[in-house]
Design goal:
2 copies of one chain form a homodimer. By secondary structure, chain A is mainly alpha-helical. Chain A has 11 helices and no strands. Helices cover 75% and strands 0% of the residues of chain A. At the A-B interface, α7, α8, α9, α10 and α11 of A face α7, α8, α9, α10 and α11 of B. The structure holds a DNA duplex.
Chain lengths: 195, 195
DNA sequence: GGGCTGACTGAACATCTGTACAGTCTTGGC
DNA sequence: GCCAAGACTGTACAGATGTTCAGTCAGCCC
């Protein structure tokens, strides 16, 4: 079989290296070196750096798309907790994809725009469902509520280096830290900060 | 007087161009062209690109630092609203600085790390003060509450291009949108989303 | 075995990058 | 009026960047 081992290892290296150093400011040569491969092979497989980024987008999105696209049967605040834990699980399993997506979202790759749309649409649908069930306060700004969900979940990924260096004492995607994060989000969304 | 007009216009151009296209991936030459000046002059004034970034950090931070460092006399939730409106005012007055800071925070410039520390320390102090006054729920995770504050306020700046293109129909820092944003944040922090 | 397809490489390319340097033009102090 | 300081420019350079190209090698089909 014509091994696609090269191709796969390039994508994996791209997620790792782009996630760590940014997409625009990391060169094809760095990716190639990280994959243990010649720069020309990257072009051979993906046509251009743009093509490589598209492939990395695709690879990073896999898993999250299904976690967000799937219909849920749970209801009310339980739905919220279920979604959160689902996302957290995917995040913990694929930290390189998370680091990459965090970068991609702020650098505006085509794939990240797709993720954003997916999440906003999903989030909005969820909010509307909650509203219909009367679980939402009536004066809620639904667009901004959706965006707030998005920020609370995804911004930490984009700020990961800053966060880990200045505020946390370990990796963000470690089990314990991840749990604190998820619980803090659920707390805030359900009851607010003040009493 | 030996005009420092060149210097100032370079910093202004840097905020604009770096804010729009990212810092790492925007060249000195682009900044120079935007300032109507030769690339060599940029080096003359700032020594290197690193020096220019430091100057841009400084320029962007001015205003926010005072808004955040100042002691406040208001109490309780009013303090929260006051701070929010103060921040919003500065943001509205200096949109280029905001776009720049949004980028700087995710690219990890030294100045942005300073801003982050400033905000985290300020935020934590505020949370502690609220806790002492009994305004905080006791089981609140104070570290993550501080971080949530930070994300709700600053993440939109880093996601600005995505946000404006995919979710909003105008500039984020326009009066009306800014007000909705601030109100949504205060709502969420005070009472949560659900009832 | 012969030939084809596709993974893979090394060397080369034009261009862009940050920066250095030598020199000119402007201006304020004497 | 002169001079020194510093704002400012054009040119040049070494290295990095994305991409091209000719060519080698391994495995599959006939």
């Amino acid at each position: 079989m014509r091994s696609a081992k090269g191709r796969d290892s390039i994508v994996a290296a791209a997620l790792r290296v782009f996630g760590a150093g940014g997409i625009d400011s990391t060169s094809l040569r760095e990716v190639a070196k990280a994959a243990g491969v010649s720069p020309a092979l990257v072009v051979h497989h993906f046509g251009s750096k743009e093509g490589l980024v598209a492939a990395a987008d695709e690879a990073a999105l896999a898993g999250f798309a299904t976690a967000y696209g799937a219909e849920q049967t749970a209801r009310g605040p339980d739905l919220l907790r279920l979604r959160a834990e689902q996302t957290a699980r995917v995040m913990q399993e694929r930290p390189e994809a998370c680091a990459y997506l965090g970068r991609a979202l702020v650098e505006g790759t085509p794939g990240s725009a797709r993720l954003f749309r997916l999440m906003i649409e999903g989030g909005r649908a969820e909010i509307e469902a909650l509203a219909e069930r009367g679980a939402l306060r009536e004066d809620t700004d639904r667009l901004w509520a959706t965006l707030q969900h998005f920020f609370l979940i995804w911004a930490p990924l984009s700020f990961m280096p800053l966060l880990e260096q200045e505020a946390l004492d370990g990796p963000l995607l470690e089990r314990e830290t991840l749990d604190r994060w998820v619980n803090a989000n659920l707390d805030l969304l359900k009851e607010g900060l003040y009493r």
